[in-house]
Each structure stands twice: as structure tokens, then as C-alpha cells.
Design brief:
about 40% strand; six-stranded antiparallel β-sheet; elongated; six-stranded mixed β-sheet; alpha+beta
């Protein structure tokens, strides 16, 4: 499906008004939209950009979406050493670094430090745990998500069944290092450390950079109503 076809189908869906969810649970809003517009795969083709992700969300939702993961050349401290020095037991009893970072030090003394050109995880002692160049983060995001069509739906429950009213679609493209840095600095992009001790080595599931679905327009450079 190309963008012109999507716009036509979306206008038809908007005109339907309230529609019953075709799947229970969090994924119902996206699955129902795909079924209504006849989209077999979760993407839309745009000239020069290839397949672009389609994301539907509830207007009232505070759910998070992972923008990308990035670890390449970021760790300044050996990961296993960092886990054993600053980690805490996870739900499986393994020592790990499973922290959502902020600029305020957490219980382990780790915090997010943001400068003009870098974002780093540091300890209050001054130890730099990991550090990313802002330009690399922006490039990773552009590679992972060059464009996104974000659809907003209102939601209500009737007799235990969820209904949706799809009201808005936005095409979002591009970003800049300044945008990524500012969104990290404001706390709109969150940094999740996700690694644990495997005995002889660390198991890193990828440092996640996440944002709330409702704030996705703030992460892109260009936002256009469809």
C-alpha cells in the first residue's frame, strides 16, 4: 500500500466513526486498523524511503515504544565489572543492570549526564559507565525508523468490549542530533540499561532508547497531517 492509497482508506475508516475492536488487549488498536484498511503487512511504501512503519495508538495511552537499541562502542567500563559494582538482583535472582536512567542518581548512584555532543551513564563518583555521541544516536534512529505514520484513536469500553474511533494520521520523517539531545534532556526519550551477569560474561539485551507514543511527534523533524 502506498501513501495515497493509505490516505484514501484512512478517510473511509474515519467516516465509519466508532468501530468494535477486532482483538482484545493492547494490540487491538493496531490490529483493528490494519484489518479495516486491508493492510496485510505493518508498513506503507513511500517513495525514496521504502517500507515505513504504521503505528496506531490510543489517545489516552501512556505506553512506551522502543525507538532503537544501541551499544556499539558505548561502554567505557567493562560491562561485567559495571554489573558487579553497580548492579542489583533481577526477578530471576541474577545480578543485573536493569535501570531506566534519568538525570537524578538512582539507588546505585547512576545517572544520565547530557552535554552538547554526548549522552553518558555515570556514577556519582565520576566513573563514566557508558557514553554515546549524539550524532550517532540520531543516525541510528534515522536508520531504524526513517519515517512513521502515527494514527491516533479514541477508545471506550462498552459492555466489556473496546471500541475505537480513529481520528488522526500523521506522517513523521527525519530527526537531528539537536532533537535527540533535547528530548533526552527533557526526559521525553528514556534510556534503559538491560544487561545481567552470566558468570564469565555479561549478557546485554541492548540499551533501549524509548519514548511515549503520544510524544513521538516531538522526536521527528518533519510532521505532516494526512
Amino acid at each position: 500500500m502506498n501513501l495515497k492509497e493509505f490516505r484514501h482508506e484512512f478517510e473511509r475508516v474515519k467516516a465509519l466513526g466508532w468501530v468494535v475492536s477486532q482483538r482484545r488487549g493492547p494490540t487491538g488498536v493496531g490490529h483493528t486498523l490494519e484489518r479495516l484498511i486491508g493492510l496485510k503487512e505493518n508498513n506503507i511504501a513511500l517513495p525514496d524511503l521504502g517500507s515505513v512503519e504504521l503505528k496506531a495508538h490510543r489517545a489516552s495511552s501512556s505506553s512506551m515504544i522502543t525507538l532503537f537499541t544501541f551499544n556499539r562502542k558505548a561502554w567505557r567500563m567493562k560491562q561485567l565489572d559495571a554489573i558487579r559494582q553497580y548492579g542489583s538482583p533481577d526477578e530471576n535472582g541474577r545480578l543485573g543492570l536493569y535501570y531506566t536512567m534519568s538525570k537524578t542518581p538512582n539507588s546505585a548512584g547512576l545517572f544520565l549526564h547530557i552535554s552538547t555532543t554526548t549522552v553518558s551513564v555515570r556514577h556519582i563518583s565520576g566513573q563514566v559507565i557508558a557514553e554515546w555521541q549524539v550524532v550517532d544516536l540520531a543516525a541510528q534512529f534515522r536508520d531504524k525508523m526513517p519515517a512513521l505514520v502515527l494514527v491516533t484513536a479514541h477508545s471506550e469500553t462498552r459492555a466489556g468490549v473496546e471500541w475505537f474511533k480513529y481520528t488522526r494520521a500523521q506522517l513523521m520523517t527525519g530527526t537531528t542530533p539537536d532533537i535527540i539531545r533535547d528530548q533526552l534532556d527533557s526526559g521525553h526519550i528514556l534510556v534503559d540499561l538491560r544487561l545481567h551477569d552470566k558468570g564469565r560474561a555479561a549478557r546485554n539485551h541492548g540499551t533501549g532508547f524509548r519514548a511515549r507514543e503520544a510524544r513521538l511527534p516531538m522526536v521527528f523533524r518533519n510532521v505532516r497531517e494526512l
